[in-house]
Amino acid sequence: MRKLTLAIAGTLTITTAMTSCKSKSAIEYPVAPTDNTVDSYFDLSVADPYRPLEDDTAAVTKAWVEAENKVTQDYLAQIPYRRKLRDRLETLFNFPRQGLPWKAADGRYYHFYNDGLKNQSVLMRSDSIDGEYTPFLDPNTLSDDGTVALTGVSFSNDGKYMAYTISRSGSDWTEIYVMDTATGDLLDDHIEWAKFTSADWNGDGFYYSAYERPGDGKEFSNANENHRIYYHKLGTSQSDDVQAYGDPEHPLHFHSAWVPDSEDYLFVKGGGDGFGESVMFKSLRTPNADWVVMEPSQDLEINIIDIIGKDIYFTTTEGAPRRRLMKAPLDRPTKENWVEVVPEAEGVLTSAELASDKLILVYEKDAANQAFVYGLDGKQICEIELPTFSSVSFSTSKKSDDVFYSAASMCLPTTIYTYDLASNKSETYLTTDINGFNPADYVTEQVFYPSADGTMIPMSLTYKKGLERDGKNPVYLYGYGGFNISLNPAFSSHRVLWLENGGIYAEANLRGGGEYGEEWHHAGTKLNKLNVFNDFIAAAEYLIEQGWTSPEYMAISGGSNGGLLVGATVNMRPELFKVAIPRVGVMDMMRYHLFTIGWNWASDYGRSDDSEEMAHYLYGYSPLHNIKNDGTPYPAIMVTTADHDDRVVPAHSFKYAARLQASDTGDAPKIIRIDSKAGHGAGKPVSKVLDEQADMYSFIFYNLGIEPVVPE
User: Fold this and answer.
1) Residue 26 pLDDT greater than 90, yes or no
2) DSSP state of 221
3) Of 76, 9, 123, 41, which is closest to residue 606 (Cα–Cα)?
């Protein structure tokens, strides 16, 4: 199929090229601005004609974005049931939901609550756990459109103040404000250009991590360098804040602060250069105290639980790829003095937290959670009985016997329980009912299938009871496979729309994730990254071979690293899929490290400037660089991104979509949905979530040739 000559960078005119699509009328794709850029990576020359799209503030890029959004909205507008799907999703999403309660330093109880369709959940407060809760901080009042998200709260140890962090329009940039907990009044304190931080209190102020203010127009694209820790004293200007830690010799490292409740020490963790983190600390009671290094490298995961007596309790991968619980004396904290408290187990130790004078340890086995109570001496006391094949999250405190936990699975909405440490008994505290959804009508099963090298990969399948394996069931296959992140059972109300229309939701636990510890993770990184794509392809093949579905009914989706997954597997095996939705994906593997915090992903991906071998490997699967242009039919593809995504900058999706549209990949549509005042996903207002999900499901159903049934 012939494409018109690509436009030249610098012209403001957006021309179009004609191509056919699944719809009755042809799509006119905008032609993107280009130049003649060619980059050299050792012996490899790589053309990058869509380089102008990396400048998201340029007039030509803005014009192209506007034209692309018109194409996409025109395409979606022709889908006759799009509005009905949006309405159904709103109904499914319109139910009260509450987060785990916790007792704060002011003696009151707090939880987040949404009565249904509020864009952001409200922080509620009560004098007692069973008392009346009233709004304490409503982030919906911080903007007119719900695009300001409350990302964290932190109470001073005397309970007088609460610092809270917000993000605007989905950006990773963080602002910090402070409230008086007695009156609810906002103080004058205001911190800007913080990132990847909380507020860690010490006395009448707090520590936080921030970057220098970026240049105008480059707030969401320039590489972030020289992360520093500052101390802010209440009642002063940010310009007066004192730098507590910096590392100019390593400008690409992250630094985060932690102060125990005793306020005796300042701990600093460093990351960005390995799979783990370095740890050092110093006394806050001794003037001009020296830093004490606990672990200098970033080779080990070290997650500090707390200081108990004269020991630091922490979990680590040191000598245990599935993690173990250790302690180290404060006066001799280096590795040779670490003492094992709870040894490595069959499952992966995912969290450990203090509950009064005991420890609650959560493990992951075959992608589901188990929980146990231990003494500080490392002896197991009991197992906490959880719903089968579920994920769990705890709310505990060393100062209280109160224990709450939430549990959820693919078919069961989140339930909150109270747990009695003395009797090992759980009681239901709060259940969740979804409009028009009966969990008893659905089932989840876990299967294991062989990947290309014979490795057995777990996958969960959720579907309506009575479904037959006739090869015609629509499948929504989802995966991630990276950064040691596990895909555990979780309930999603918008997924009900898919299930009630006879769809199968398949979630594959690919290598690169954390489901089986560091060995599983490493097996999907750097020169092993192809394992991840092969695992995902094998999942699709298994579903087809077992009669669950066929390629004509297969839709795949993934976000961020999962967007990379979708883009790469479509290039490798386009005939397996009918629809693909790569969301906010890492699509340019040769240049990802040059934007915002992309350099931080090198521990998983490697970099194109590492070595000749690494450059060739990355180039061999980079979604942007491996799009076929020989008439090979591709599935229908809708790329998604957002204008404020400063995690995976939209240039990845821009360049990928432009090249996809300019290539000969058959007649199925190739469109890009570019959201405004939105970022990588976290904190997105409910209204935008519903809009995006409605568009995704509309695109999937339409291109599968299925007209969904929507209850009246």
Assistant:
1) no
2) T
3) 41
What tokens were used for 342? Answer: 């709870």
Average pLDDT, the chain: 92
Q: 């057995």: which residue's tokens?
A: 456
Angle (deg, nearest 10), helices 686-704 and 82-93: 130
Question: Across the strands, what pairs with 232?
Answer: 206
Instruction: List Cα–Cα distances, 402 to 109, 415, 589, in angstroms.
Output: 11, 17, 47
3-state secondary structure of 497: helix
Nearest to 503 by CA among 231, 209, 288, 708: 708
Query: Which tokens sit at 294?
Result: 């606990």
Tokens representing residue 84 in the block:
């009905």
Average pLDDT over residues 255-260: 96
Return d(Cα 482, Cα 514) in angstroms, integer.
Answer: 8
The residues assigned a catalytic role are 560, 680
CA–CA gap between residue 647 and residue 221 (Å, rounded): 9
Query: H helices within 33-181, ranges in order?
Result: 59-77, 82-93
**How far apart are the C-alpha atoms of 653 and 705, rounded to whole Å?**
26
pLDDT digits (tens, 9 = 90+) for 324-382: 999 999 999 999 999 999 999 999 999 999 999 999 999 999 999 999 999 999 999 99
553 token code pair: 């009914």
What pairs with residue 430 in β-bridges?
A: 416
> Is residue 114 helix, strand or coil?
strand
* Element containing residue 425 per DSSP (H, E): strand 425-430
Strands 97-98 and 109-114, bridge-based pairing = antiparallel
Q: Encoding tokens for residue 249?
A: 């010799």
Helix or strand holding residue 393 (H, E): strand 391-395
Distance CA 82, CA 485 (A): 33
Length of the chain (residues) = 712
pLDDT in tens, 309-321: 999 999 999 999 9
**Tokens coding 500:** 């009630």
In angstroms and rounded to an integer, the radius of gyration of the C-alpha atoms of the chain is 26
Q: Are 428 and 125 in contact (CB under 8 A)?
A: no
**Pairing relationship of beta strands 368-375 and 380-384 according to DSSP bridges:** antiparallel
Annotate 262-309 with three-state secondary structure: CCCEEEEEEECCCCCCEEEEEECCCCCCCCEEEECCCCCCEEEEEEEC
C-alpha 188/C-alpha 179 separation (Å) is: 9
d(CA 506, CA 458): 11
Distance CA 283, CA 268 (A): 12
In the chain, what is the greatest distance between 2 CA atoms, to the nearest angstrom? 75
CA–centroid distance for 213 within its chain: 25
Q: Which residues contact 277 (CB under 8 A, 6 or more apart)?
A: 269, 270, 271, 295, 298, 300, 301, 302
Q: How many CA atoms lie within 13 A of 136 on its CB side?
A: 26
The candidate with the shortest Cα–Cα distance to 634, out of 597, 612, 659, 653, is 659
